[in-house]
Amino acid sequence: MRMTYRKTPALPAPVTTDATGPVFRSGAVARLARMPVATLRVWEQRYRAVHPATAPSGHRLYSPADLQRVILLRQLTEQGHAIGSIAALDFVQLQEIARMPAARADGAREAAARAAGAPTWLVVGTALATRLQRPAVLRHLAGPAPRVTVFDSLAEASAAASDGAADLLLWQAPVLRPGKLAELQQARQAWRARHTAVLYRFAQASTIKTLADDGSSMLREPADDDMLGAWLGSIDRGLLSAHPDAEPAQAGFPLDPASAPAPRRFDDAMLTAVAGLSSTLACECPRHIAELLMQLNSFETYSASCIHRDSPDAQLHAYLQQVAGTARSLFESALERVAHHDGLALR
């Protein structure tokens, strides 16, 4: 099922900014537009969708016209328009899109996305599609926000294939069963997808290896949005660096030496101590994070020990080592933040 679009709400009345200048802070704008402040900041910093003034105190201040624009952008994104494809449009153009019938709006959305160079992603899994809209995921993407088409199943994706080609086929598979691999291949061929990525929760090692050997990116679904965003960001950068006409198996996802994970901040002795201390606290997050970090440390070390194997195993384990190190660095930051909140000393 493709994503449905809501009925267009009544547009705010035009506002003319007077000489009094900006009058709203970001918190007020976010509240009036019914959106998180974090999303508003992503729209400003990543997409330049609105340009507030800055007060001497450093606060961002918005004029009534800025507020009106944010509200209209919010309405259009709720209808399914990608913020990256409409952020540069002026207010009159945004109003024209908002007033379009659904069929014309679909065409305008696709045209705007193409003009912005937005990649095409096919997402199989409505829950994952919703998660992809979160700022913590979007900020990791290297290029324009993708133009996303959502399906409930691989079979539905194959049946809806068009003459176009997709940059990425992203499949959320809570339980990854070997019998589904043929369906994934069929959907990939039907859409001529340049790359496939699979987010799973439970799977046999042999099934994971089969898909990885076929060129698919694999990740056990993380609860943390930053981890998911980092993984998708690495895929996005790989697609941008590959020639657009390259075959999926040749596109490749080379390691980026500049993005090598930072050295470990906590040894196992410190993590064990934190895990023991957390039993005296009402919140058990320090214990859980410490345990995850010890697992990631072990897997990072294991992957490093496998790099000396013959290709392609060496390249695969170098990639796994980098992924584990990136995840470990993110969780180390999370542990520091939680420890500060709970008053724990990590040194």
Average of per-residue pLDDT values: 75
Shape: flat
Give the uncertain stretches in residue-range form. 1-19, 243-259
Using the CA coordinates, give the radius of gyration. Answer: 23 Å
Number of helices: 16
Order of helices and strands: EHHEEHHHHEHHEHEHEHEHHHHH
Strand order of the largest sheet: 5-4-6-7-8
**Biggest sheet, in brief?**
5 strands, parallel
Strand content: 5-15%
The first-to-last residue Cα distance is 52 Å
Q: Estimate the helix proportion, in percent.
A: 40-55%
Q: Helices and strands: which structural class?
A: alpha/beta
Total strand count, please? 8
Give a structural overview.
The chain is α/β, with parallel strands linked by helices and 347 residues long. It contains 16 helices and 8 strands. The chain has helices at residues 26-33, 37-45, 64-78, 83-86, 91-99, 102-115, 126-131, 135-138, 154-159, 181-191, 205-213, 225-241, 248-251, 268-277, 285-306, 313-342; strands at residues 24-25, 53-54, 60-62, 120-124, 147-151, 168-176, 195-203, 217-220. The strands form 2 sheets. A 5-stranded parallel sheet has the order 5-4-6-7-8, with helices on both faces. Helix 3 (64-78) runs parallel beside helix 5 (91-99), helix 12 packs antiparallel against helix 16 (313-342) and helix 15 (285-306) runs antiparallel to helix 16 (313-342). The termini are far apart. The model is unreliable at 1-19 and 243-259 (pLDDT under 50).
Please name the defining characteristics of this protein.
flat; 5-stranded parallel β-sheet; 51% helix; alpha/beta; 8 strands; 347 residues; 3-stranded antiparallel β-sheet; disordered N terminus
